[in-house]
Amino acid sequence: METTDMFIEFESKYNFTETNEKLSESILQNSWKIPAVHDLQEILKKNGKEVLPIKTIELCNPNYAFEVLKLDDERNISSLLPCRISVYEKLNGKTYISQMNAAFFAKQIGGKVEFVISHAFGDIEKIIESFKK
Fold first, then answer.
1. Which DSSP symbol is given to 92?
2. Which positions of the chain have pLDDT values less than 70?
3. Residue 4: its pLDDT value, please?
4. 3-state SS of the chain: helix, strand, coil percent to 5?
5. C-alpha angle with apex 99: 9 to 102, nearest 5 degrees?
6. 67-78 tens-digit pLDDT
7. Contact status, residue 133 vs residue 12, Cβ threshold 8 Å
8. Mind giving me the DSSP string for 111-133?
């Protein structure tokens, strides 16, 4: 697993298709919602650009989102919602999962936002843990 201050990346033990299918199932089984999945490879292809397979899954836990969006002073973080996880292939043929290190970012904000985002990040970490090779 590679971790920078802002991003976490690790190799999936499944191929690209299996990772996306199993990850979506796991997200839903853990009481999170999937508002959208963006097929970035397809979007770029429509614009004349070729990249390896890459999908970004938006996931939301309405309980966590409500805790910060109900407060005027915290609504400015709405541009970070919903959370996102990317699944992609690299030239080595392996599949990877990455996400923003939301817990690190939340520490910079502090207060209620740090509390809520840190808990959401912990939930997401539990969801993706079984995918690590």
1. T
2. 1-4
3. 57
4. 50, 25, 25
5. 120
6. 989 989 888 888
7. yes
8. HHHHHHHHHHHHHHHHHHHTTB-
Name the residue with tokens 């910079």: 108
Phi and psi based region of residue 8 (left: phi greater than 0; alpha: psi -120 to 50; beta: remaining): beta
Which pair of tokens denotes residue 41? 């490879």
Among candidate residues 125, 126, 127, the one with its CA nearest the CA of residue 3: 125
**What secondary structure does DSSP assign to 32-73, as a single string?**
-EEEEEEEHHHHHHTTT-----EEEEEEE-HHHHHHHHTSGG
And the tokens for 85? 């996880």
End-to-end CA distance of the chain: 9
Q: Percentage of the chain surpassing pLDDT 70?
A: 97
